[in-house]
Amino acid sequence: MTQPRQRPADIWTRLNEISGEAADNVQRQHVVSQATLREFTGSWPGRSGRLLASMNLDFPNASPRPAGTSKSGFVPDFLRYASRSAEQVWQETETRLPAATRAAADGSLFGRPDLVKVIRDAIALHFVRSHQTSMMHEGAWSTVRRQARDQWLCNEQVLEQAFLKKYGLHLPSRSRGALELMADELLRPMDALFESGALLRIRIEHLFAEAKRIADGTGLEIARPIVGEFLIGDTPALAVRIGHDGIGPTGGVPLGDADQVVFPLGPHLLASLGPRNAYGAIPAQLVDAFNGLQVRAAQRHVYFRPGSGLERTVRRAARRRSGAEPASQHNEGDATS
Questions:
Q1: 148 is in which domain, residue-wise?
Q2: I need a labelling partner for 27 at 20 to 30 A (CA). Which of 153, 169, 241, 293 fits?
């Protein structure tokens, strides 16, 4: 299922609606909900309070470090334009996520359709509010801008008229440089919207609505590990497809084309969008495979319960991620079966 494109008129309408909020921003924006990160916390020797074990994948051989949830799973200025109002929309889901997670843990979830929707919406939110979305947005903008520029350069008469109107001069004959200058000048307003983050703000909002619509048409599966624990990365909602090695939209698996979208709710709970509502159990091999997917998809950090011993899993998966160890040695392909 392909997500429909936004119409230009709708984009401009929405930009006008939120233009007054442009500077009202939250600097530290979580791409992993603190409500979910708290499920992975535990005690740390010599430290007070509940903490995460955090590993930076740039330094996989370093020991895990203790980290609080407020300082984990965030990106400074992920949205740079009217982000506070976006955060308010996200909080409608995040504030109810602990109750939904408890219901998933105690087996009462499917008697509460409202909480089932909370988890579906949380998966949709984490799928959209991610590093992959911002990367896809940048790539799409680069392509659209190049195509628009090429179209302008194919219409020299319009560019010549625009040059005359702006500068009061006729273009020199066969002046390719002046034509390119004018094409770039005409694209400047859209360049400014892209650079300000306004287009990403609108795109994220649109994608979240579409992702929720797609998720509402699926079942929700809740699984526990028979042995072991789950970890969570900074890109936690992972779309996978059978027989395809890529993960998520940057790996060629958009939400609507996924066979499964997996999201760890805690060390002992995994939620996934699938064909039906169901509880299940996952053997140790698949737990390891799902954890490997989290490491592969992460931008930089992964988190797990202190004392779980998952640093060994992270280091092994990090070697595979860097190409230092063949994937076949640990059967990660089973994670999509």
A1: 138-198
A2: 293
